[in-house]
Design goal:
Elements lengths: L5 E4 L3 H12 L1 E4 L2 E4 H8 L1 H10 L3 E4 L5 E2 L2 H5 L11
Antiparallel strand pairs: 1-4, 2-3, 4-5
Helix pairs in contact: 1-2, 2-3
């Protein structure tokens, strides 16, 4: 039986760019201040894509919206009771 109480979180390019912005803040380029994630995405898309693919998978419990790095932890967080039992 499949567990329907969790799902894998799909990391989008926009999510990854925002994470880089949060982590590295802004950078100065020729006297202009820009978000670090935006700069990397625009200037070196290969490095941006490689970094994004290196991010670990995450899963979210659908019962409480807690995010886990381990799929088993997400699956066991808020088990859904089988309505056909009992």
């Amino acid at each position: 039986m499949a567990n329907d109480n969790y799902e894998e979180i799909e990391l989008t390019e926009d999510d990854y760019e925002a994470m880089l912005n949060d982590t590295y803040g802004t950078v100065d380029v020729c006297g202009m201040t820009m978000d670090a994630g935006h700069v990397l995405r625009q200037l070196d898309d290969t490095a941006f894509q490689c970094g994004m693919s290196d991010e670990p998978q995450q899963w979210k419990c659908l019962g409480c919206n807690t995010v886990y790095d381990d799929e088993n932890d997400a699956a066991n967080c808020c088990p859904i009771e089988d309505e056909s039992e009992g």
